[in-house]
Amino acid sequence: MKNKNKEKKERKQLPWRLNVLFFIVFLLFSALILRLGIVQIVQGSQFTKQLNQTDEVTVNTSMPRGQIFDRNGNLIVGNKGLRAITYTRKGNVQPQDMLNVAEKLAAIINQDSTIDVKSITLRDRQDFWILKNPDAAKALITKADMEKYKNNPNSNDLLYQLQLSRIPKSQLNFSKSDLDVLAIYRLMAAGTKLTPVIIKNQGVTDKEFAYINENLDKLPGVDTEIDWERYNTFATKNGQALLNSILGNVSTAKEGLPSDLANYYLSQGYSRNDRVGKSYLEYEYENVLQGKKEVVKDTPDTSGNVVGTQVISPGQRGDDIQLTIDAKFQAAVEKIIEDLPNIEKASIGGYQPYSDRAFVTAMNPNTGEILAMAGKEWVKNKKTGGYDIQDYALGNINSAYPVGSVAKPATLLTAYQVGAINFNTRFNDDGYLKFAGTPMKKSWNVSGLGDGLTDLQALAKSSNVYMWRVAMAVGGQKTYVPNMKLNINKVDAMDKFRKYFSEFGLGVKTGIDLPGESSGVNGGMPDQPGKVLDFAIGQFDTYTPLQLAQYISTIANGGYRMQPHIAKDIRTPSTDMTQLGPVSQDFEPTVLNQVDFSQQNIDHVKQGLIDVLHGPHGTGVGHFPLSDKYGYKVAGKTGTAQSVYVGERSKSAVSNNMWNETFIGYAPYDNPQIAISVIVPYTNSETHANLTIADRVFDAYFQLQKQEENSQNANDPASETQVANVNQAKAAGGQ
After folding, report:
1. Where are the stretches annotated Disordered (predicted)?
2. Considering the chain, what percentage of its residues have pLDDT values greater than 90?
3. What angle do helix axes 327-338 and 689-715 make, rounded to 10 degrees?
């Protein structure tokens, strides 16, 4: 009876238990459905984005840089194709995997360990030893060490540094074969994930290239491709090249982003192993010359292995730059400077032991286009004892010198402007000025240049005494009696001089499209009033050759300071690598300022510049035989400035009684097409090398112009009307 009641009771409890179970299952399903809804509806887009980011990774492949041409379409800097062996770190590759590949590669290719080993640091050696000796490395850390740092949040880093410090130094003296492996491994490890890095692109042999291609399946991540490197078509066997220092450098494939520019370039979307312009023109126009990378999406599987590739956008080499410079004219000017040892008495290392450099800047005074920018420096060869010629074109923009009498046109114009003198002002030149309590001011011609000199006569004869009197007048002292006190307002005088000199570009940056330009050296406020007089004859502040070229160009074109530029236009890449493509950006002439002088005053001084070379007593008369012979009349100003030599040629590092020989000028004087500056520093006597160089530069320019005109007429016979149109364009300042 009891058993029956018990059974009956248990049957009643069973449906209740089932209901509880069903209810629990219902709650679980409800929670699951709710969670799925949240995941799909609320977080769905986020997870989809994460999925896409995981499955598709963008790979950037570097493309060749744009090329550099001269104004006539002649290639100056191009790209030379190189066979290259690359490595791309893909998926979940571990250091040991890369080491295995590096060991295989080292057995196949002849790695240039001479170069690469120099880049291997102590840390590289330590990490390499740990990777090759994991058990021995693990043993360097004791249980006591683990216990000591177990609660430190930086325990891993602290233990790692401890491990590095305990590696015996003797274990880091690797064999050459190990160093070759390490050199390859460090290149692999330095690469960004899914971005190819160059393992070798110099001297890859046919055998190496073929063997790698045949065994790609055994070398995961390794590939071959055609790489590039920069070359100058005018390079010589001794390593010199046209415009070498102005063009600048590009980082190598193994160097990647230069350390001092890395953060800037990374912020612009570059990869660490990208090659970029490091200096001057290559750096200034990096955004133009840098190619557009090929963008590829690699789709990896769950293990990180690439299973699909899609090209999103094809790569394109960088845009080309056409320069304002004529390569033939540039080469001719460089050759003229290199012949300096044969110019009259300017023998390098002989009669002129300190004359170790020379500069020429030539520009179109109407447009600011740089036609040539040449500089050479003679550097002693420690092995041979002789002197090697090195390109120093950069000296035109970043080295400054006292320039002497070429500053006198600006001195006169300043004096006219402030009312200190006029066209009729006359001064006597007895060769000196005497002041009480001040050392005598002696001119270069102590016998004097005559009484009652006019301003133009003073300019033609290069009278220092006249210009000193001008400076006195600018400073408020218009009378002179021997042995009187020099009592000028030096602050007011210097402020006026520097204000108006700067309008010509003297003492300020010219604005050229190259980095690293110097503004010259401002000597500050003179401690003695006599130094204001020195300023008026170009013996106080210093100026660059480019500043002098901009200065004389401003006078030549009637008072417009043009911004000098070396890039003429940007070109879309052509399918023919030797030809220019269509213009994508043209650089128009830019007027920085118009000088605050009347046209009458400027024209008056221009007549004085003609008299310097063609007047009866001009300092340049007879020094331009080529210009006189071929009929393109030159206007200009000669200069000689006292200087102090500082350099390797003087044992004491300082040699006094040096002279900087300078020249500024333009031609033809009635229709200027070219303006130049010449500086030959540190001669110890008057050589006239500055004038001989200037004459040859003008001759080279006009002879090339004539050749080009004859060539155009021969290839494309034109009507008289067409020829007239061309001549009118040239008269307006065209080339």
Report:
1. 708-735
2. 48
3. 150
pLDDT at site 663: 97
C-alpha torsion angle, residues 141, 142, 147, 148 (rounded to 10):
-70
Q: State both tokens at 558.
A: 């009637």
Say which amino acid occupies 702: F
Which of 544, 480, 504 is closest to 408 using CA atoms? 504
| Token couple for 103 | 């060991």
Domain boundaries along the sequence of the chain: 333-559+595-731
Cross-sheet strand order for the sheet of 655-667: 387-391, 370-380, 357-363, 674-683, 655-667, 635-645
Token pair for residue 76?
């100056």
What does DSSP assign to residue 576? S
- Strands (E) in 619-654, as ranges, are 635-645
320, 571 contact by CB (below 8 A): yes
What are the two backbone dihedrals, phi and then psi, of residue 697, each rounded to the nearest 5 degrees?
-70, -45
Token duo for residue 592: 């920085």
Residue 151 identity (one-letter amino acid): N
The angle formed by the CA atoms of residues 647, 649 and 655, to the nearest 5 degrees, is 70
Which residues have a Cβ under 8 Å from the Cβ of 707 and sit 6 or more positions away?
Answer: none
Q: How far apart are the C-alpha atoms of 708 and 383, rounded to whole Å? A: 44
Task: Classify domain 333-559+595-731 at the CATH superfamily level.
Answer: DD-peptidase/beta-lactamase superfamily (3.40.710.10)
Q: Which residue has the tokens 């010629």?
A: 389
pLDDT at 3 over 60: no
pLDDT band at residue 307 under the 50/70/90 scheme = low
Cα-based distances in Å from 579 to 73, 154, 322, 619? 7, 59, 11, 47
Cα distance between residue 300 and residue 667, in whole Å = 68
Roughly how many angstroms between the first and final C-alpha of the chain, as a whole number? Answer: 128
Q: Mind listing the pLDDT tens digit for each residue in 376-400?
A: 998 888 888 777 888 999 999 999 9
Cα separation, 69 vs 66, whole angstroms: 10
Give pLDDT, residue 717.
47
Cα(708)–Cα(365) distance, integer angstroms: 20
Residues 6+ apart with CB under 8 A from 23: none
Output the average pLDDT for the chain: 85
Cβ contacts of residue 343 below 8 Å, gap of 6+?
687, 689, 692, 693
Q: Read off the pTM.
A: 0.81
**Cβ contacts of 142 within 8 Å, gap of 6 or more:** none
Cis peptide before 300 (omega within 30 of 0): no
Supply the residues annotated as catalytic. Answer: 405
Q: Within its chain, how far is the Cα of 729 from the centroid?
A: 32
- 194-228 exposure pattern, b = at least 16 Cβ within 10 A, e = fewer: bbbbbbbbeebeeebbeebeeeeeebbbbebeebb
Contact 641, 538 (CB under 8 A): yes
CA 689 from chain centre, in angstroms, equals 30
Question: Which residue shows structure tokens 């090195």?
Answer: 390
Nearest to 59 by CA among 319, 301, 300, 317: 300
Short-list 124, 159, 121, CA closest to 138: 159
CA pair distance 412, 556, nearest whole angstrom:
15
Which of 652, 650, 678, 653 shows the shortest CA–CA distance to 665?
678
Of 566, 617, 602, 608, the closest CA to residue 587 belongs to 566
- For residue 653, give every residue at least 6 positions away whose Cβ sits within 8 Å of its Cβ, in sequence order, or none: 646, 647
Q: In a 10 Å sphere around its CB, with 0-12 CB exposed, 13-18 middle and 19+ buried, how is residue 174 labelled?
A: middle
Query: Do 371 and 674 touch, CB atoms closer than 8 A?
Result: yes
Q: What's the pLDDT tens digit per position in 40-73?
A: 655 555 555 444 444 455 566 668 899 999 999 9
* Burial (Cβ within 10 Å: 0-12, 13-18, ≥19) of residue 363: buried
Distance CA 441, CA 426 (A): 19
